[in-house]
């Protein structure tokens, strides 16, 4: 399937004001996090609640809950009370050892119906000291996760394409979608990267830096940039 035939746009926001901007500019999914604190850094639960109120069901809402740890469900207690469509923990520091994944499944069992846990893989898994993307993908398929997110852990000058090439990403996406898992692709992608990814057809591109003023993920959202992404995905 060619890029754009069904690919939607996820925009990460840090406040209800940004959520309103992203929605107006055409975002298909609003993701809440605190971009200045890392790839998967949570925003305060009050902020997430205010974003949900602003979005008011117009599109689905997801929230980043940090890097997974054994006490993650307790730590996220207030976030988990909220009517979120998707939640996600990164796997930085979670290594690929025999039996890995059991505790992730145990975490998933504790999440209320209606909120889906996203399987998150970092393309720069060596820098994140986490499980390689192809292993997270197998896990997501085997245990019927609804959504898989491919992102980068370290937000520096490198992006997704420094760690995986377009063919590898396409194969990952096709395999997952073939197994009934929807895929979001992120990792400091710029709009120009879509040319290299022309044969990749994820369910969402997930962006922050590329839709902020000056391409800086800690700056304000720029609605013109969001609209350009929407046009590019048409
Ligand atoms: O969920 C996706 C991330 O927020 C993407 O952020 P980024 O485009 O700055 O890498």
UniProtKB/TrEMBL annotation:
Its EC number is 4.2.3.153. It catalyses: 2 D-glyceraldehyde 3-phosphate = 4-(hydroxymethyl)-2-furancarboxaldehyde phosphate + phosphate + 2 H2O. One of its GO terms (molecular function) is lyase activity. Keywords: Lyase, Schiff base. It comes from the Bacteria. It is an enzyme of class 4 (lyase). InterPro entries: 4HFCP_synth, CutC-like_dom_sf. It holds the Pfam family 4HFCP_synth. SUPFAM superfamilies: CutC-like (SSF110395). The active site is at residues 33, 88. The keyword Lyase applies. Catalyzes the formation of 4-(hydroxymethyl)-2-furancarboxaldehyde phosphate (4-HFC-P) from two molecules of glyceraldehyde-3-P (GA-3-P). This is (5-formylfuran-3-yl)methyl phosphate synthase. It comes from Limnoglobus roseus. The lineage of its organism: Bacteria, Pseudomonadati, Planctomycetota, Planctomycetia, Gemmatales.
């Amino acid at each position: 399937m060619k890029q754009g035939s069904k690919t939607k746009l996820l925009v990460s926001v840090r406040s209800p004001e940004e959520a309103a901007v992203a929605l107006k500019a055409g975002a298909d999914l609003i993701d809440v996090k605190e971009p200045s604190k890392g790839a998967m850094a949570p925003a305060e639960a009050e902020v997430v609640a205010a974003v949900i109120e602003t979005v008011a069901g117009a599109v689905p809402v997801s929230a980043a809950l940090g890097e997974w740890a054994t006490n993650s469900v307790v730590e996220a207690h207030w976030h988990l009370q909220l009517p979120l469509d998707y939640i996600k923990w990164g796997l930085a520091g979670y290594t690929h050892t025999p039996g890995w994944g059991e505790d992730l499944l145990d975490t998933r069992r504790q999440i209320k119906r209606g909120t889906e846990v996203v399987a998150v893989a970092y393309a720069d898994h060596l820098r994140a000291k986490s499980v390689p993307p192809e292993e997270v993908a197998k896990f997501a398929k085997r245990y019927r996760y609804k959504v898989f997110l491919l992102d980068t852990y370290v937000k520096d000058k490198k992006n997704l394409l420094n760690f995986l090439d377009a063919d590898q990403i396409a194969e990952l996406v096709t395999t997952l979608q073939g197994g009934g898992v929807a895929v979001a692709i992120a990792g400091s992608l710029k709009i120009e990267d879509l040319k290299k990814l022309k044969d990749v057809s994820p369910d969402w591109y997930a962006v922050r830096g590329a839709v902020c003023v000056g391409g800086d993920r800690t700056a304000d959202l720029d609605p013109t940039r969001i609209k350009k992404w929407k046009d590019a995905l048409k």
